[in-house]
Inverse folding.
């Protein structure tokens, strides 16, 4: 998207799309409503660069990053937001007519000394979501990967990381020579935007890398595909060895959100109509869900493709 200046082009995609994954909306938390105004007929899940460390309207620099998934309102009942992720990675679960997990990503750029570690951390966050959903769901990963699946470029360390990740996770991609990124200076072009999936049969069709057009002020062009959701899912399982470990940061708990979530869950459970075992399982799941929503977690073990990051870098 690359900022509110491209709002008209994003709005033009609404009529022909059931689901839109957006990267680089450049909005802060207090500005999120403006994206809802751009896509008035859609509901959405939005994360901003300051989602986990909110910035006030008085100290804000120019906006950066941010991801969002928007969907037509007829899809709202079977869709739920997945709490996992970060301000670069956001995911939703579509529960019917078949189970699908859609992950929208905006991966780190290759322009800082820390980008290798940042990219690895993002891959570990994605792999954590895959490990939870890949057996039971079709997985679709959409977005700006800031790395290419074409022959890797010697100067870009992200290419190797992305290609190794796609191979290890058994992800499928559409092969094309078309470009998706055109630097505004005209000095560079590349293919870095993808729609990946884990299905063993034809799940995506009509894959298209769109042409540049005057109304699109972004340096990226849209990539689109149709999901064939009526067929029975037969997914490839993610290898169990690809696991990240997280430590729950109880000291940073949002107590009000934690208590409110538990109270809301308990209000919907009639203990008298359930057995003791059922009620105990319900309470355990209730506490787990509340912790997922209200307590941040930190990666304490990274296992990227063919390597492991030192915990001293965290």
């Amino acid at each position: 998207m690359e900022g509110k200046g491209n709002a008209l082009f994003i709005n033009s995609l609404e009529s022909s799309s059931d689901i839109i994954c957006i990267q680089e909306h450049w909005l802060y938390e207090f500005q999120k409503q403006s994206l809802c105004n751009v896509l008035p007929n859609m509901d959405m899940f939005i994360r901003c660069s300051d989602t986990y460390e909110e910035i006030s309207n008085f100290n804000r620099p120019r906006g950066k990053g941010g991801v969002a998934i928007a969907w037509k309102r007829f899809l709202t009942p079977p869709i739920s937001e997945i709490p996992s992720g970060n301000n670069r990675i956001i995911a939703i679960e579509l529960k019917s007519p078949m189970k699908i997990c859609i992950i929208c990503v905006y991966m780190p750029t290759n322009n800082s000394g820390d980008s290798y570690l940042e990219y690895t951390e993002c891959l570990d966050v994605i792999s954590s979501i895959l490990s939870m959903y890949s057996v039971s769901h079709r997985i679709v990963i959409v977005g700006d990967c800031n790395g290419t699946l074409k022959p890797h470029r010697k100067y870009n360390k992200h290419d190797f990381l992305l290609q190794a990740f796609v191979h290890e996770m058994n992800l499928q991609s559409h092969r094309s020579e078309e470009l998706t990124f055109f630097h505004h200076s005209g000095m560079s072009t590349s293919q870095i935007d993808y729609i990946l999936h884990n299905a063993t049969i034809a799940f995506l069709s009509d894959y298209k890398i769109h042409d540049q057009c005057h109304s699109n002020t972004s340096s990226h062009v849209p990539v689109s595909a149709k999901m064939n959701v009526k067929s029975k899912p037969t997914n490839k399982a993610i290898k169990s060895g690809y696991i990240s470990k997280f430590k729950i940061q109880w000291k940073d708990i949002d107590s009000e959100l934690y208590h409110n979530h538990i109270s809301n869950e308990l209000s919907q459970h009639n203990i008298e109509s359930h057995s003791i075992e059922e009620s105990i399982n319900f309470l355990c799941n209730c506490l787990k869900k509340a912790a997922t929503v209200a307590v941040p977690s930190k990666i304490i073990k990274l296992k990227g493709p063919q390597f492991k990051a030192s915990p001293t870098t965290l």
